[in-house]
Every structure is written in C-alpha cells, then in structure tokens.
Amino acid sequence: LTAAGVALVAVGQVFTQTPAPSAGTGVTKVAVVNIGAVFQKYDKAKFYKDEMENMLKPFRLEAEKLKKEILDWTKAMEHPKFDPKERERYEAGIVANKRKLEDLDREARRRIGKKQEEQIVALYKEVNQIVNGYAQANGIHLVMAYGDPIDGDH
C-alpha cells in the first residue's frame, strides 16, 4: 500500500493549489508532505494493510503447501532407493502443482488487485481532503508531496 501511495506522488502530483497570493504581498506559502510517511502511520492505511494480509493468507498457505509437495517429490526422486517406475507419476504431480500455483497466483491477483486499488483511491482522496483543509485553514498556497522509501519498500 505504501509503495502504491508513493507511486501516486512520484509522478509529481500536486495535492492542492489555491489561488496565488494577492498582488503586493509577494509571499507564497508552500508546504511539503511525505505521503509515504503519512500512509505508513495512518491508522486507516494500517487497517487496510492488515485486511490485505488477511485476504492473502489462504492463498499463501495453499501456495506453501503446493511448493512443499513439489520439493518433497523432487527430493524423493533423487533418493537412491526411489522406484523408477514411479518417476512419471511424481513428475506429473510436480507439473500439476506448478499449474495450480500459477492459477492460484492469477486468482489472488484478481481478487486482491481490485480491492487494493479501491483502498488506495479511498486513502488518496481522504488524505487529499485533509491536506486541502489544512492548507486552506493555514493560508498555504501550494502543497507538494513526495515519498521516501519506507522500511521494507526498497
């Protein structure tokens, strides 16, 4: 989520721009927001991240099971006492599990992708609204956002 939030800003998105100061004052108030830090510390963003983790958990568990079976079958075929007559059956099982992993990945991306997109848009809109309100209340004319990599987002 944080990486996606940072990506929204990386294109140079300006969150808010109010009218320029009136002639004669010559002062333009500018603020800068680290959107990555906002998304990392914002409780709603944390909630969304936890929600994503919970949605992904069954997919991860199934993927781990399939990978373990592939590894176990591969090791079994390398054992000196492995019956060569079983090789074809084991290889078919490995191929089947690899296909199941691909299907599982596609299904996870399909289900999670749409939900994640909705969450990112909702967070962006909410943060944008808060930043706009703060800027207007404090006479800030321009707010720019940037995103430093957050721990784990390298």
Main sheet, how many strands, which sense, barrel? 3 strands, mixed
Proportion in helices:
55-70%
Structural class: mainly alpha
Number of strands: 3
Poorly predicted ranges: 1-18
Quickly count the helices.
Answer: 4
> In whole angstroms, how far apart are the ends?
13 Å
Spatial order of the strands in the main sheet? 1-3-2
Query: Helix and strand succession?
Result: HEEHHHE
> What shape does the CA trace take?
rod-shaped
- Rg, alpha carbons: 25 Å
Strand content: 5-15%
Mean pLDDT reading: 82
How would you portray this structure in words?
With about 150 residues, the protein is mainly alpha-helical. It has 4 helices and 3 strands. The protein has a 3-stranded mixed β-sheet with strand order 1-3-2. Helix 3 packs antiparallel against helix 4. The longest helix has about 50 residues. The two termini are about 15 Å apart. The N terminus is likely disordered.
